[in-house]
Design goal:
The protein contains 13 helices and 13 strands. The strands form 3 sheets. Strands 2-8-7-6-5-3-4 form a 7-stranded mixed sheet, with helices on both faces. It has 2 domains: about 120 residues, Aspartate Aminotransferase, domain 1 (Alpha-Beta Complex); about 220 residues, Type I PLP-dependent aspartate aminotransferase-like (Major domain) (Aspartate Aminotransferase, domain 2, 3-Layer(aba) Sandwich). It is an alpha/beta fold and about 375 residues long. Helix 4 crosses helix 5 and helix 6 packs parallel to helix 7. The protein is globular. Strand 9 and strand 10 form a beta hairpin. The structure holds pyridoxal-5'-phosphate (PLP). The site of pyridoxal-5'-phosphate (PLP) has 14 residues, from helix 4. Pyridoxal-5'-phosphate binds next to helix 4.
């Protein structure tokens, strides 16, 4: 018996590997592997979520009208040009699904976000990887990879897992260099961690250009990863095409209410941003001190660091030793980063503990 045969392009997909949430030994661990908010979730969002427990028999508003209006108001956007998704992951899949298929090419950078390759292959399109520039997005390399078959370009800014940031002028230059028929997807999952003067101009571009989609998520600074809510903003014809393949009731009722409340709790977001900035720079300095052991970090604009290992202690052995000490980080050999560990900025206790554990591991090897 052979059974049904999956499509070749589906067989070509390497399944997404999520961050581990337990060490395997049952010990209490610091989960620094998924870039979640160490401060939790806004109390207002939790209350709004809980209030929806009475009404579980009803379908949600499939158009997420109230949520789109809240997002539009917060960012000065047209609510009709916002689409919501089951996480921004779904919005990325909608973009690939609506604009690419067999025979088409979709570009992303080496060390780009792992979901892009899955979204591209899922629809039978061909992934094209543009080289990086010291792990960061190289606009010239992307433009050089464009062919007449290119349909979509995915750029995360800041990028995950490298934490690098592409400034506004470079994003503008990328957009200016792309043909009109190529959709530029700017994945801003970490945008709320940027300082106010660090806007990469994505939303302004999406307001006026016919070929720019910006995606955002409630999973990161808003602390609602469990609820799976993201959104995208683009010209009306782009959003119209994506709606055609969107699942009809893709954001839960509780999720929609929690997200609206989360948007309204600006204090929680500001506190989260400040916590991240403080402990990110503290941890960066701690890792810099391990430079003579071959460790370095890239300058991060997100809520995590990528630590690169080029000495006696390898990323792989540090990954296992950290796990034994109760610190779960992300080792990414599947993404060409066998020499790197991605570590989320945790609580003060977790961040201090992680730094001490890493110091110990590197010290033992010296
Ligand atoms: C976390 C992340 C996302 C989104 O995740 P969702 O939970 O699906 O909203 C999207 N892009 C990047 C680069 C991310 O790191």
């Amino acid at each position: 018996m052979t059974g049904p045969s999956p499509k070749d392009w589906v067989k070509a997909i390497h399944p997404y590997v999520p961050g581990k949430s337990a060490t395997g030994s049952g010990m209490r661990a610091a989960k620094l592997s998924s870039n979640e908010n160490p401060l939790g979730t806004s109390e207002k969002a939790r209350a709004a979520f809980a209030a929806q427990a009475a009404g579980l028999e009803r379908y949600p508003d499939g158009g997420a009208t109230a949520l789109r209006e809240s997002i539009a108001q917060r960012h000065g956007l047209d609510p009709d040009r916002i689409i919501c998704g089951t996480g921004s992951d779904e919005v990325l899949h909608q973009a690939a699904g609506a604009f690419a298929g067999p025979g088409d090419e979709v570009i992303y950078v080496r060390y780009g976000f792992a979901v892009y390759e899955i979204a591209i292959r899922r629809v039978g399109a061909t992934p094209v990887i543009a080289p990086d520039r010291d792990y960061a997005t190289d606009v010239d390399a992307i433009l050089a990879a464009v062919t007449e078959r290119t349909r979509v370009v995915f750029v995360a800014n800041p990028n995950n897992p490298t934490s690098t940031y592409t400034p506004r002028e470079e994003i503008a230059r990328l957009h200016a260099g792309l043909p009109d028929h190529v959709l530029l997807v700017l994945d801003q999952a970490y945008a709320e961690y940027l300082e106010d003067d660090e806007d990469d101009g994505g939303l302004a571009l999406a307001m006026s250009a016919s070929n720019v989609l910006v995606t955002r998520t409630f999973s990161k600074i808003f602390g609602l990863a469990a609820e799976r809510i993201g959104w995208g903003y683009a010209a009306a014809p782009i959003i119209d095409a994506m709606h055609r393949i969107r699942l009809p009731f893709n954001v839960t009722i509780a999720g929609q209410h929690a997200a609206i409340a989360a948007l309204g709790d600006e204090d929680f977001v500001a506190t989260s941003r400040a916590h991240n900035a403080k402990w990110r720079s503290w941890l960066t300095a701690e890792i810099d001190k391990l430079g003579n052991a071959g460790l370095r970090t890239l300058e991060s604009k997100a809520n995590f660091l990528l630590v690169l290992f080029n000495g006696a202690v390898t990323a792989e052995s540090a990954y296992h030793s950290l796990m034994e000490r109760g610190y779960i980080v992300r080792w990414l050999p599947g993404q060409g980063l066998g020499h790197g560990l991605r570590v989320s900025i945790g609580s003060e206790e977790e961040t201090r503990g992680f730094a001490a554990a890493l110091r110990e591991i590197v010290g033992e090897a010296a």
